[in-house]
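Two proteins were folded this term; both appear here.
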Amino acid sequence: GSRTVVLLLRILSEKHGFNLVTSDIHNKTRLTKNEQMELIKNISTAEQPYLFTRHVHFLNFSRFGGDQPVYINIIRDPVNRFLSNYFFRRFGDWRGEQNHMIRTPSMRQEERYLDINVCILENYPECSNPRLFYIIPYFCGQHPRCREPGEWALERAKLNVNENFLLVGILEELEDVLLLLERFLPHYFKDVLSIYKNPEHRKLGNLTVTVKKTVPSPEAIQILYQRMRYEYEFYYYVKEQFHLLKRKFGLKSHIRKPRPRPEFFIPSPLETEEPIDDEEEDDEKWLEDIYKR
């Protein structure tokens, strides 16, 4: 998902004339106090208009006396995210860059070809907690307890979503995410959906699909779900908030009918089918309030 969005941002930055910085630091998400201060300083003093992307846990700019930036993010189904990452680390994608070797040059062959079911059922570190507690820490922040699977990190992540993010979208509904981004941040995202649907961009997007992915057994997936129960509680909370936002701005959900979920999955909230007519609050006033937070 992130690779698809970054491709779009590169096109948009040239089209609309904003500064785009995509960090090449992929595996340092928790920062020391000095590292936080340095990153916040660099972002805060950058030439505007400016958009910065990085895989890093939430940074509280106000804690260091800075103005909070406009935060946006996209999350996906936790098990699907885990599987994509598991195979991407080993085999990369279709871009032909051998980037799995670049990312994991020291990975032993027996580890690279480790069967996903063996990893899960035999409780390898990569397939068990805390490694599976992955999405919540990004929203919880830099506090050490944000890496501990539990209610504290979950509730803090929910609070940050509500108070510090303009939008947290769902990857499975990416077109609706792009529509809302175009509405909220037109200088950056105007025409993003038409670019995304362009056949030439689709060809580029297809190259970022992870290769050699296989589906674990139902038993293994059930174990994953049990280990990721906090991740799923957060995922469905964000999904519900995203659907409320879509309804507020009159977007219908155009989602293909999902495959029946195995009985070990918790049921997802009802999909939004019809927009709500809300005359009590002006849409633009609501958006202004978001920016003032």
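Next, the second protein.
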Amino acid sequence: MKLCHVLTFLGAFLTSFVLGGRGGLVSSLLGEVSSVLGHLLVDNCYQTSCPQAQEIVREITWSHTSKNSALAAKLLRMHFHDCFVRGCDGSILLNSTADNTAEKDAIPNLSLAGFDVIDEIKRKLESECEKTVSCADILALAARDAVSYQFGKSMWDVKTGRKDGKISRDTEALANLPSPLSSFSTLKQRFSSKGLSVRDLVVLSGGHTIGIGHCNLFSNRLYNFTGKGDQDPSLNSTYASFLKTKCPNLAATSQVDMDPGSAQNFDPHYFVGLKQNSGMFQSDAALLTDAEARQYVDLLVDPKVFNAEFAKSMLNMGAILTGNGGEIRRDCRVVNS
């Protein structure tokens, strides 16, 4: 067993021990164990077992991103949606079966894309280093590399050593994923439940600087905000007029750049627009309703600050683990049998 996976196994053992305890022991130690689990990931887990692993992930990801600039947002979102359900265990990659509807088929995940890129990377790694690199690690690395393509260098570290989960349920995706319709209190609770701070919430929202949004997820702000055929009064009127040209009615199904004018560039322009009340989703606008969150928004308009803080928050999010064990899948879409 690889050193990094030994550490993950130890974390799972500790969690099982605590969960098997009684009363106060569980409540007092579970929090400590969950924080320790995030530190069980290591730098370059595959340095000995598959030294070319990160290079393979980068080469294939960059090859696809060079032909499809939208891939960066797609893989970043997929990684986010994976980590918020059962931790970063690759469960988002599993297909549904005859007796189970998987996470990827939950309504919030139906617009996810990029699974074919993960499959290609996995096939290459299996041919080079069989049963060694987890799908969860591949997704974490590919998300980083797709975003980093425009810079020609890695924009944040990715610690590795994750195991692939064996369970994927659509109901858990619905219960755990933050909604674009969420209030600040709901967002804060969802992030806090994963061990993430308000700072992480605001910083990671900056991922909306790339990618597209679907009209049905925000058109209520344009046409029926309180159920009376009204517009969200907090929405910048000029921006609202622009959105109405893209989404002419509540039933529109069009796609719109989340950060107009900068949707292909990973930069802090999202926060510039947010300060002008031009956040697309209610969950974006919600960041301005909290004093602490607004302070972070003000800081993050600086490119150097944004890049540095995004790196830290991606490390925090990538360390969300369940400690429930797992495997190294041979095919990212199905559990080993």
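The radius of gyration is 20 Å. The CA atoms of residues 141 and 165 lie 17 Å apart. These notes refer to the second protein only.
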